[in-house]
Specification:
The chain has about 210 residues and is an alpha/beta fold. It has five helices and eleven strands. It has a single domain (about 5-205), classed as Rossmann fold (3-Layer(aba) Sandwich), CATH 3.40.50. Helix content is about 30%, strand content about 20%. The strands form three sheets. The protein has a seven-stranded mixed sheet with strand order 1-3-2-8-9-10-11, with helices on both faces. Strands 4-5 form a two-stranded antiparallel sheet. A two-stranded antiparallel ribbon has the order 6-7.
């Protein structure tokens, strides 16, 4: 049975309490067409025993949930992206209070990874780190974020048709330039996730606590 939810936090979401003390909580951010249930089994495999907080994106694109609007494939609505990023960071703060959570590590896929990256740039206090799977640069900030020492794992697919090599390299450079401790790994995959992603993320998260 799922843990009691707090419907007044502003996002439809799912919360699973920690079962192992000391494990970092995870903020699970789905890709386009996913929902609050999508990444829960993945999060449980990546970091057994961690608390899991999984919101559903509020934007709809052809009926599919997303975390922010885009104008075309790979073209983001930057005003909407920034507003939604602040909204999501506020949700995280409220959820931390409601569920008595430490700073979470974001685990995001595709659209979810992009808003996780945006949160690190706009609201770095919201996250303790991030696993960004199939992410690109969400935007270039006017002022650099202070991400000194914040751990980030970027997992890219060598045959990803949606995220270019230049884009993922630029993201790693942007976050590293802000002080983040970035590990970037390109695996033999497309845009979809593979067992290799799970294994790499699991090992990286195990090192976080």
């Amino acid at each position: 049975m799922n843990a009691p939810q707090h419907p007044d936090l502003g996002f439809i979401h799912r919360f699973e309490p920690a079962t192992t003390p000391g494990r970092p909580p995870l903020l699970l951010l789905h890709g386009t067409g996913g929902d609050e249930n999508d990444l829960v089994p993945l999060g449980a495999r990546m970091s057994p025993g961690s608390a899991l907080l999984s919101p559903r994106g509020k934007v709809r694109e052809n009926g599919m949930p997303r975390f922010f609007r885009r104008l075309a494939e790979g073209v983001f609505d930057l005003d909407d992206l920034k507003a939604r990023t602040h909204e999501l960071a506020d949700f995280v703060a409220q959820a931390r209070a409601a569920y008595a959570l430490e700073q979470p590590i974001a685990v995001g896929f595709s659209n979810g990874a992009n808003i996780a990256a945006a949160m690190m740039l706009l609201r770095p206090e919201a996250l303790a780190g991030a696993v960004l799977m199939r992410a690109t640069v969400p935007f270039t900030p006017d002022e650099p974020a202070d991400l000194r020492g914040v751990p980030v794992l970027i997992l890219a697919g060598s045959a990803d048709p949606l995220v270019s090599v230049d884009s993922r390299s630029a993201l790693a450079a942007l976050l590293s330039g802000a002080g983040a401790d970035v590990s970037a790994v390109t695996i033999d995959a497309g845009h979809g996730l593979t067992p290799r992603d799970i294994a790499l993320a699991s090992r990286w998260l195990a090192e976080r606590g």
